[in-house]
Amino acid sequence: MPESGVIHDIGYQRYTGPRLGPGYSARALYVHGVRSAYGLGRSPWAKVLPIGLIGLAGLASLIIVIINSQMPQPVLDYVGIASTFTFAAAVFVAVVAPELVSVDLRTNLLQLYLSRPLGRASYALTKVAALATATFLLFAAPMLIMFIGMAFSTDDGVAGVVEEFGGLLVGLLAAVVHASLLAALGLPIASLSGRRVFATGMIIGVFLITAPISAFLRELDPGTIGRLAGLLDPNSLLNGVDQWLFGADVSLVSIGSSGPVYGLVTVALTALGTMAAVWRYKGVKS
Amino acid sequence: MPLIETTALGMRYDGKVTALSDLTLDVEAGVVGLVGVNGAGKTTLIKLALGLLTPTSGRIRVLGLDPIADGEQVRAKVGYMPEHDCLPPDMIAAEFVTHMARVSGLPAAAARERASETLRHVGLYEERYRRIGGYSTGMKQRVKLAQALVHDPELLLLDEPTNGLDPAGRRAMLDLVHRIGTEFGISVVVCSHLLGEIERICTSLVAIDAGTLLRSATLSSMTGHNDLLVVEVDEGAERLATALTAGGVDVRRENRVLTVRLGQDDGAVYDLIRDAVADLDLCLHRLERQRYQVADLFRDRPAEEVSHA
């Protein structure tokens, strides 16, 4: 063991400074969660997928900006980004959610967290919030790029910029809805397995299985069943909300007059998923 | 105030496996060794003390608080080092310990400062800027200890801290635990299934077996007993015993071997034995001083004495 050399050992110092409460603990875990979702503070390999995805999203929005500025009518607006990027965000959640919770389970790091002033419920809620924030950033980054691009290329001066800004705010609101639902669905699923691969597979599986069922029902019956079939698949569910609330141009499903049902189901699923995460950690072995 | 106080504490897992039953004990400040074989209930007791488990019967208080009702307060004042691996391999040790300090409630700047200080105290210097995944078992144990110590707890709970270490590593870890208890002034409860290993660093010992208390005492009261002298003679052990008893010493005889308790004035006892052997003209085979081993306190104790404990 190397000696500390010239550094004088002043012995152990007791800590007399402030000790902040459980709220601060949760905040520390939250910031750590958002950072590690993008691989910050972790190995270079952990950065590849999340940073790559957000980079691709940015690139895609740049291309959209260029196309939009050439066309008389924009082909895709801010809410359109939220709708079309949902599947990419689902992939992001599938990769990142296991990073946030499965690793803690597998390495037993969870018991170190639980032996600190941080309750089981706040651990679960903090992780859901961190995942939702990371997912929100994935939506927000391309929207910001689009806003900057459109603001510079607008022909209507300040009025054009203000209009674009209004669009951006609506888009960010849609992003909050998307990110919350995806995180509330992905996190409890990921928390079932300590193996990252299984957790990722299960989340992707939910999307892969529900999408064709929903599409099949929509094909089968264009009536009420078809209109409500979109509820089965998160991707079309969120698109339905976008159409109902934010008037999205992109329509994966025809929701007819059942927009409120889509909204209700989205809120219910988000709440249910969050509760499932809390419930899951109530019983977890520590 | 006792650090940990339990009253008729019982813990059953799933209503089937009994981990602790009717455990009543007081753990006083100092370095406390919690000994017992694997499965005796040591880890269960620690998890109950942290409020991670809810006791199925009885009561436990830690630092005067109820770990279930005041869990947050208890866990802010207690540091816990689990038995098994619990570190994220792809984090840098210094960052990890800083993060854990913040989760314990230390402001960012203080967390960073205390993390590097604590890592230095446990013996990690330049290595602390490497990823934990590349660490040896000994270094991982040090990081585990550092994360338990970083928020300057009042009580440190160490579950088998020498697990997986080689003899030199064990000695270094135990010395470190001893320093934490004495120089740092933090009370430590250290679990081990190896009594011989922790007896030299502890101020008191608690022995549990199959979820019940076997014995709890301070080490000074345990080793405060006088040493024993073993006297072995060829024949006439009975006569020698009678002579020594007449001389006023405590003698036990087992065939040809006498065990004599050394009193305050052990020189007098030696003289008495020498004179008695010479007077009776016996053949002395062996005269050996036997140090009182703590292990003797836990071994071969009469059944009724155990149930009293």
Automatic annotation (TrEMBL), chain A:
Key words of the record: Membrane, Transmembrane, Transmembrane helix
Membrane-spanning segments: 48-67, 79-103, 124-153, 165-185, 197-217, 261-281
Entry annotated with the keyword Transmembrane helix: yes
Tree of life domain: Bacteria
Name of the protein this chain belongs to: ABC-2 type transport system permease protein
Species annotation: Saccharothrix xinjiangensis
Record lineage: Bacteria, Bacillati, Actinomycetota, Actinomycetes, Pseudonocardiales
From TrEMBL, chain B:
CDD domains, sorted: ABC_DR_subfamily_A (cd03230)
Gene Ontology MF: a single term: ATP binding
Keywords of this entry: ATP-binding, Nucleotide-binding, Transport
Residues annotated as signal peptide: none
Top-level taxon: Bacteria
All copies of domain ABC transporter, residue ranges: 4-235
Protein transport among keywords: no
Family the UniProt entry places it in: Belongs to the ABC transporter superfamily.
Protein name per Swiss-Prot or TrEMBL: ABC transporter ATP-binding protein
Annotated source species: Saccharothrix xinjiangensis
